[in-house]
Design goal:
Elements lengths: L1 H6 L14 H14 L10 H30 L3 E5 L9 H7 L3 H10 L4 H5 L11 H16 L3 E6 L7 E5 L2 E5 L12 E12 L2 E6 L5 E6 L2 E13 L6 E11 L5 H5 L8 H7 L12 H30 L5 H4 E6 L6 H12 L4 H11 E4 L10 E3 H7 L1 H21 L5 H10 L2 E2 L5 E3 H7 L3 E4 L2 H9 L3 H6 L4 E3 L6 H7 L2 H11 L20 H26 L8 E6 L8 H17 L8 E6 L7 H18 L8 E5 L5 H10 L2 E4 L11 H7 L3 E4 L5 H8 L5 E2 L4 H9 L4 H6 L2 H11 L12 H9 L5 H19 L2 H13 L6 H13 L8
């Protein structure tokens, strides 16, 4: 019943041409099976049925897609071009079905053919073209742009292998290739006519332009071709369908026949291999010079192709390059595409003959930059020598931009004092203190008219930390755009039973505009709603328990509290704090077995960067602790630990609806926003977290009584570091923490190698930069408050309902409307 309620909500806005009978779908599936796949029903396998069903659905999407493209061209309105190195799009089949209101007709058509929709949908590859929140945000934004009526086009890389597939072998992360294209990608369209030349290396000379003016001329030593693949992005109800264009790298000549004929069969393919490596793997390790070069080649490759492409589109439509900034808004998603500032200047000046001053004004007006981090190591910088060798013309342009910026700074600030020289050094696009490197964050800042943070706290910290000096000489650029999540993927699709409950209570309009969900708060004290809410959560937990048993062989009780911590594995996200508290809780249960403990299952999932040794050590520790805890009969199953491998969008869709407690425990001041926090709260989980990122705004909207906050604030963290933080004294003064660390450091959980975690533990004693020890006692107290709340189910479900009811503002639809109004200056539908 709930599922039907969800499906019936917004389909009324679909045009009649998209209302399709079950009989017609059934016939078309059989036709696709025969003529596109070459199979009949008797020989077709599940993946054949999936491909056929996707192709049938795609045909309906293409009609709306072409209509949306024609309308954008006809209107001549300003378009948004979203440049992102990552698009963590996940599976598309069920998502697109839901957005078009076709889930039940497709389910019935397949059922008539003896095929289960859910079974074949699970075979669709989960396109892991991203690492985490940044890539998932880009996917949410593309879907929301289509939903609210923003004409947009996403640009990225069509990686042959996305983020690695994670296997856990003997408790350790092992990276294996992720092969999402192994069964073709039925969603995409190859655009053979959309090919752009991307240059690398070479030299810069001078020649005369058409008007006799001397111009710089870059003569690249190497040319790589960027070929476009388009995927339609369907908005809710199918009113608009935008495009995601991903670039694939190819050599100009796929094989050198002269070398092949000489017998050099490997060398004949060298150019092709070098070119194609650009789009081979997401985030190749940059721990070596070769890895750094490949990463920079990737970033320039997709940025140049995207800019050339959007200029081509603009010239075809408008014919005048000088109106580019009036018709195009170019959003740089983090520093990865920040070379766009120099590349756009090069294209305007060297190719289109625009003067420097006019080109600089156009670039600033066209470009906008989203910052996602305050971590210095995540604000990219590139060795000057590498850029000089790979992108010589761009380095010239960056030097010129830098001179312009420093001249501007000297006019606006005093000079002559030692601190003034230090400020100039920090403002400079060239970092002279670490072997001369180009600061890509500074380049993106000075070349954009707006620079946005992704939560209120993060935006204020940007002004006070990484961009403090630039903000003083170029004020008014920094603005806040708090992140959001698409409710279609993370509510309607991931949790149809809960969406159905909410629709039954307050009406289906909530699916058209999530901000209407506030009305659900009226039911927070209704016993029948609490009972049904709890039943939905229980069903989702049973599904996760079944999945966990299939993956790990661990039996868990769905009646226990499901405490879930899923994120990229990183020290600032503090999975270490969680597992140390888990060890302390384990010791406490063993010490007082007769005490009334809250049954709890600690779920972890996430990937560590391949070269991030400490993060991979934390994964091993979690699995070692799980092995001991789960096998100990003395604790009577009151505590279980499970690390689920290969975290991706599809796994998140199982975990998020099943969570009772959401762990959002980063060191305050280090998480830009987070979006997992929003997904969990929308689905009725209670958050335990620090006042970091969007947790701050969530507390304001949910209410401080309905979220469990602990630990130091960002300013307190900074003050404590400045005051000379002594973690050893903290650890020695906390018996539970000391016992947990001693047991970890001396091998209680690693008897085969007692010294395995000695360095990990010593890092806490010696520095503890991420404040694990400093926040431990507060975290433990918060967890016991959670236990007390869990013991009162009526109060727990009241708070869970209020979490769901107050998360409407965190929709990516709201975020996109805010971008459209305040940054992009583009039209959109006022209501969805």
């Amino acid at each position: 019943m709930e599922h039907d309620t969800v499906q019936g909500s917004s389909v009324a806005i679909l045009s009649s041409r998209r209302k399709t009978s079950v009989q017609a779908l059934r016939s078309e599936i059989i036709s696709k099976l025969a003529y596109s796949i070459g199979k009949d029903a008797a020989t077709a396998r599940d993946h054949d049925w999936l491909t056929a069903a996707i192709l049938v659905l795609r045909d309906r999407i293409v009609d709306g897609w072409m209509s949306s493209v024609r309308e954008a061209k006809r209107s001549g309105r300003k378009r948004v071009y979203y440049l992102s190195l990552e698009f963590l799009i996940g599976r598309l089949f069920k998502d697109a079905l839901g957005n078009l209101g076709m889930t039940e007709p497709m389910r019935e058509a397949l059922r008539d053919l003896g095929v289960d929709l859910d079974a074949i949908a699970g075979l669709e590859p989960d396109a892991a073209l991203g690492n985490g929140g940044l890539g998932r945000l880009a996917a949410c934004f593309m879907e929301s742009m289509a939903t609210v009526g923003v004409s947009g086009l996403g640009y990225g890389i069509r990686y042959d292998h996305g983020l690695f597939s994670q296997k856990i072998i003997d408790g350790r992360q092992v990276e294996v290739p992720e092969d999402w294209l192994s069964f073709r990608n039925p969603w995409e369209f190859l655009r053979r006519e959309i090919v752009h030349e991307i240059g690398f290396g070479g030299s810069v000379g001078m020649n005369n332009g058409w008007d006799g003016t001397a111009r710089h001329a870059w003569q690249p030593a190497e040319i790589v071709l960027a070929m476009g693949y388009d995927t339609p992005v369907v908005g809710w109800g199918g009113r608009m369908i935008n495009t995601l264009r991903l670039w694939s790298a190819h050599a100009v000549d796929p094989i050198r026949l002269d070398a092949f004929n000489r017998g050099d069969h490997v060398g004949a393919m060298a150019d092709s291999t070098r070119a194609e490596s650009i789009s081979r793997v997401l985030y190749p390790s940059d721990a070596t010079p070769a890895g750094q070069e490949l990463r920079l080649r990737q970033e320039y490759f997709f940025t140049s192709a995207s800019l050339q492409d959007l200029i081509r589109r603009h010239m075809q439509r408008f014919g005048d390059i000088r109106s580019l900034h009036e018709k195009a808004s170019i959003q740089l998603n983090d520093t990865h595409p920040s070379i766009a500032i120099a590349e756009l200047m090069r294209l305007l000046i060297d190719v289109h003959g625009i003067s420097w001053d006019e080109a600089w004004s156009m670039t600033r007006e066209a470009c906008c930059y989203t910052n996602h981090t305050l971590l210095p190591e995540a604000l990219e910088s590139w060795p000057v020598g590498l850029m000089e060798r790979l992108l010589p013309r761009h380095l010239q342009i960056i030097y010129a931009i830098n001179q312009h910026t420093l001249d501007e700074a000297r006019k606006k600030m005093p000079v002559g004092r030692p601190e003034d020289a230090a400020r100039i050094s920090r403002i400079s696009l060239i970092d002279e203190s670490h072997g001369r490197r180009v600061r890509m964050g500074n380049l993106a800042y000075v070349g954009s008219h707006k620079v946005n943070g992704v939560s209120a706290l993060h935006t204020e910290l940007m002004k006070e930390t990484v961009f403090k000096d630039l903000n003083q000489i170029l004020p008014g650029r920094i603005t806040n755009m708090t992140n959001g999540i698409t409710p279609r993927r993370w509510f309607t699709h991931a949790n149809p039973k809960l969406a159905g409950l909410v629709c039954d209570a307050i009406g289906p309009g909530v699916l058209d505009d999530l901000e209407n969900i506030t009305a659900f708060e009226r039911y927070a004290d209704d016993p029948a709603t609490k009972e049904r809410f709890a039943a939905v959560k229980r069903a989702n937990k049973e599904a996760l328990a079944e999945y966990t048993f299939e993956q790990l062989g661990i039996r868990i009780d769905p009646a226990a509290m499901f405490d879930i911590h899923v994120k990229r594995i990183h020290e600032y996200k503090r999975q270490l704090l969680n597992i140390v508290e888990t060890v302390a809780l384990y010791h406490a249960i063993r010490a007082e077995p007769d005490r009334k403990w809250t049954p709890r299952v600690k779920f972890f999932a996430g990937k560590a960067a391949a070269s991030y040794v400490q993060a991979k050590s934390i994964i091993k520790l979690i699995n070692d602790v799980a092995k001991v805890v789960n096998a100990d009969p003395a604790i009577r199953g009151l505590l279980k630990v499970a690390f689920l491998p290969n975290y991706n969008v599809s796994l998140a869709e199982i975990l998020v609806p099943a969570a009772d407690l959401s762990e959002q425990i980063s060191t305050a001041g280090m998480e830009a926003s987070g979006t997992g926090n929003m997904k969990f709260a929308l689905n009725g989980a209670i958050t335990i977290g620090t006042l970091d990122g969007a947790n701050v705004e969530m507390r304001e909207r949910i209410g401080s009584d309905n979220i469990v906050i602990f630990g130091m604030t960002a300013s307190e963290v900074e003050d404590r570091r400045n005051a000379g933080y002594n973690p050893r004294a903290v650890i020695e003064g906390d018996p539970a923490l000391k016992e947990a660390l001693v047991s970890i450091g001396t091998g209680q959980f690693s008897p085969d190698d007692p010294a395995r975690y000695r360095n990990l533990v010593e890092s806490l004693y010696d520095s503890d930069f991420f404040m694990v020890a400093a926040d431990f006692a507060s975290y433990v107290q918060a967890q016991r408050r959670v236990d007390a709340l869990w013991s009162n189910p009526s109060d727990w479900w009241r708070k869970a309902i209020l979490n769901t009811a107050h998360m409407g503002w965190f929709s990516s639809d709201r975020a996109i409307k805010q971008y459209a109004e305040e940054i992009w200056k583009v039209p959109f539908w006022r209501t969805t």
